[in-house]
């Protein structure tokens, strides 16, 4: 039996997908990952075969830097980072305006490249990143069954009257003007319509006579898999989903490196782990505020600084590296300070770790709102929160009910790991 995994060339997408695929690998079955060259090392580390497949202009092997992107993509990335400095609406407007080129790049050529991979691999099952639209349109046009994996907040697949790109929820710390929200909603509707027109044109080119889509962002695979804990999802929204399975989380095995192991072994005091992920570590100004906020707490601090520059000096006993083994550190963390990316949120919850979330973009706002509503942490505006507010938020999370609630959901997620759920559901 052979499983084909199709992923964009981004570590943050490939890592959870590859983790799901380890259930097939450990059962002695073949796994082939179709992705680009930047993440070839990750595929090799998992022990999978790789088929070369480029699904977009950009790539990210683990920490993304604008200067390492191809011409055009570097400017887009810098524009995105600049937009995040102006808040929720400005960031979502920027992302909406760039969406068609980001998510449906060379759709006919990429779709045909995907079908070439399918012809070579002859898989028994296929797992596809939901955001790999060019890949999914090819599979749909050819009638190839596949499981569609949503790696972000479930609102990445709009249901009911939702419009892709318009946040389904946001934390109480954000209070965008109604006029700005209305303009954002109109823009997202316009982008949806233009994106759907392009989707339908590509679909006709690939499969003349195929039924057209009314909303390409709402298209999905034969089976929907959501890398998200069901208890954090609104039951009313769950009722609107197509056939689906909540995976809970897809936490990879990631042992500590020698230097991290030595640092953790120094004492048993609580650890604060800080990471803004592979993209948003570029917001070094916010990371600097976080570091200032942590000084008065007297806790051990580990910081994955990513691409951040200009950070202040920190106590010598803190652990600061561009990259840290996140899963290993979360196993010892008392609290996570995060941008609210889906990998970070689900990995923290699996480890039973509460959070202070500083969301910047896309579905991070809905994810942060869910964390706040479930009592699993606090959410603040990264552009507005002062160091003193962050200090108070960390104290409140550590001293309140969040640690106990997080431990409870962590125990539940560990009882049914996402990789095992995915295999069981896909095999029926």
TrEMBL record:
- What are the protein's GO molecular function terms? UDP-glycosyltransferase activity
Pfam families of this UniProt entry?
UDPGT
- Keyword Nucleus listed: no
Q: Tell me which stretches of the chain form a coiled coil.
A: none
Stored CDD domains: GT1_Gtf-like (cd03784)
GO BP annotation list: antibiotic biosynthetic process
Question: What InterPro entries does this protein's entry cite?
Answer: Glycosyltransferase_28, UDP_glucos_trans, UDP_glycos_trans_CS
Keyword terms of this UniProt record: Glycosyltransferase, Transferase
Recorded superkingdom:
Bacteria
Family per similarity comment: Belongs to the UDP-glycosyltransferase family.
UniProt protein name:
Glycosyltransferase family 1 protein
């Amino acid at each position: 039996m052979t499983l084909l995994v199709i992923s964009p060339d981004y570590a943050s997408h490939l890592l959870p997908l590859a983790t799901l695929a380890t259930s097939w690998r450990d059962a002695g079955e073949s796994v082939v990952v179709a992705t680009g060259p930047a993440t070839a090392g990750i595929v090799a580390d998992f022990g999978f075969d790789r088929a070369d497949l480029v699904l977009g202009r950009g790539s990210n092997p683990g920490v993304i830097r604008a200067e390492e992107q191809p011409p055009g993509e570097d400017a887009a990335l810098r524009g995105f980072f600049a937009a995040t400095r102006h808040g929720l609406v400005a960031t979502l407007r920027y992302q909406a305006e760039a969406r068609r080129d980001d998510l449906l790049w060379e759709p006919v050529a990429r779709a045909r490249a995907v079908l070439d991979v399918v012809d070579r691999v002859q898989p028994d099952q296929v797992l596809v990143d939901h955001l790999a639209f060019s890949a999914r349109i090819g599979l749909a046009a050819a009638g190839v069954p596949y499981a569609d994996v949503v790696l972000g907040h479930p609102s990445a697949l709009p249901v009911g009257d939702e419009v892709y790109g318009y946040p389904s929820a946001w934390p109480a710390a954000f209070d965008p003007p109604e006029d700005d929200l209305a303009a954002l909603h109109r823009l997202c509707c316009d982008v949806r319509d233009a994106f759907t027109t392009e989707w339908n044109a590509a679909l006709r080119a690939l499969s003349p006579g195929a039924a057209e889509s009314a909303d390409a962002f709402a298209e999905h695979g034969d089976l929907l898999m959501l890398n998200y804990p069901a208890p954090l999802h609104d039951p009313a929204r769950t009722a609107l989903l197509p056939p689906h399975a909540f995976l809970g989380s897809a936490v990879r095995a990631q042992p500590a490196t020698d230097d991290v192991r030595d640092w953790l072994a120094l004492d048993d005091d609580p650890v604060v782990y800080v990471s803004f992920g592979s993209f948003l570590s570029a917001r070094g100004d916010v990371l600097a505020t976080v570091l200032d906020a942590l000084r008065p707490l007297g806790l051990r601090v580990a910081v994955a600084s990513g691409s951040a520059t200009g950070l202040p000096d920190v106590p010598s006993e803190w652990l600061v590296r561009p990259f840290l083994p996140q899963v290993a550190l979360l196993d010892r963390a008392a609290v996570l300070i995060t941008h609210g990316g889906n990998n970070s949120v689900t990995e923290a919850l699996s480890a039973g770790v509460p959070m202070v979330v500083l969301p910047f973009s896309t579905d991070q706002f809905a994810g942060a709102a869910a964390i706040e509503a479930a009592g699993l942490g606090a959410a603040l505006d990264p552009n507005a929160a002062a160091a003193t507010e962050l200090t108070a938020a960390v104290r409140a999370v550590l001293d309140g009910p969040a640690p106990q609630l997080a431990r409870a959901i962590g125990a539940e997620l560990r009882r049914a790991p996402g990789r095992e759920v995915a295999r069981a559901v896909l095999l029926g």
